[in-house]
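Archive maintenance. Older records in this collection stored only the sequence; we are now back-filling the structure field for every entry so that each record is complete. The fields below show one back-filled record exactly as it appears after the update. Entries are processed alphabetically, and Peroxidase-related enzyme is next in the queue.

ARCHIVE ENTRY
Title: Peroxidase-related enzyme
Organism field: Nitratireductor rhodophyticola
Length field: 191
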Amino acid sequence: MSTIIHEFTTKIPGWRPRVQPIRLDEATPEQLDALKVTPSNTKVSDYVLVLANDVETLKVRTPLFNAIMYNRGGMGRAERELSAVGASVVNRCVYCAAVHASRYNQLTKDELAMQAIFADGEEAELDERQKAIFLFAAKLSKAPSEATEEDMQALRDAGLKDDEILDLILSASLFGWANRLMHTLGDPVVE
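Back-filled structure field:
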């Protein structure tokens, strides 16, 4: 039996879906076509197989996710992962926080920022740029309408350019949606 995880970790947990994932050997041609655009060239996750129940959404979701998280230019990949963690921490999405904290650690070769975030949340001691990114992603995830000119100025003061700020907004927004979807469709688990 698996146990639901409630604490943040950089160890990527399993995921137990509440909705039956499609079976690849029973997939329709439309589902198989939608699955061709998944970001991984290895195993197709249960999460993606659940999303394949709604082919039209999956065909839009995956290219959007890839464009926001992997596009060149703008904010660097590690900082996009930091933004995803900011949204995921606020939304209590343990699975997404683990996946993106782990990727951040791999990209930066530094685990201290994620340790601080998981221990202290918005009070975490981070460098100025990390803190500005994390706090803005968290604020957007709590209440987008409360983002202010002062918040934008804090990002600029931390050295972010307009294209980087746009990437930050897009990645935090993407995870505001993705976290809620993960909560609805399943649970992070230790198996």
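Update note: Residues 69 and 80 are 6 Å apart (CA to CA). The chain has a mean pLDDT of 92.
Entry marked complete.
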